[in-house]
Amino acid sequence: MGKTKNNLGKYVSFSTDWGFKYYFGREEYKLNLINFLNGLFEGQKVIKDLHYQSVEQDGDLEHDRKAVFDLYCTGEDGEHFIIEMQQISQDFFKDRTVFYTSRLINRLVRRGVKGNTYELPEVYFIGILEFELDELQSEKYYYDVALLEKETKEVFYDKLGFKFLIIPNFKKEEAEVRSYMDQWMYTLKNLSKFDKIPSCLDIRVFGLIFDIGKVANLNKEDMISYEASLKRKRDAESIRLTQERIAREREENALEKGREEGREEGREEGMEKVRVMVLKLKIMGISIEDISKGTGLSIEEIEKL
Fold first, then answer.
1. Please, which domain of life does this record's source organism belong to (predicted)?
2. Who's near 53: CB < 8 A, 6+ residues apart?
3. Would you say 12 and 192 are in contact if contact means Cβ atoms under 8 Å apart?
């Protein structure tokens, strides 16, 4: 793995908005997206061709919130695919995926008499995420989500699915890459670091990516767009790291304040116990000098108590 002099890497990174759409969103390179989706579905379905659709989905009413996808395409068998690259974690991300699929499904319902049957096409949301979806599952890098019957675990509705690839959770080295899914995860995470095609990748599937992905071969317009996208990604990463540092410092300060308050409360509680003990000894008629010897307190400290 290596870097070029301009620190852009030899190959365009997948993990930028521009790079993601460069590899997956252009008509002339759609074979990359077809291969990727076939890898995800692992024989469950075979996508032979795709048609790119408008990424903007309006609501039924003028004031309805608009849904804007990164990529939206349909298969030749009528399937609908929403493909998203998400770099920064956000609140209610799962809600957003449900909103996107729900908005699309609503638009796909046939109007008039034809819609009386409520028959719907297949709809899938695919998310490539640069953050952990669940902090408690830091080793899980692929989620395949469907509507299930809880008791039997059987799929209740097989025309709606969510697939998530968690890039930071994939930690396999080249020698550990075995499956088709691993090949894609390894490429998505490390492409910009490669200086040649790794031997673990199937050249028949990934050859086009390496053919078109060389930074040195980008035209002037694409280079400007890629550099701008890379800068936005780095800025966003810097902001994320800064936010994490501030949150960590606040948490540490709060813990230290709590410990100090605890120590102060402990000191006060300890002095109260000493005060009670000294009073009991005085009531018993024991002299201050003897109390001083027994407790280790000075006569002045006993008198203050």
1. Bacteria
2. 72, 73, 74
3. yes
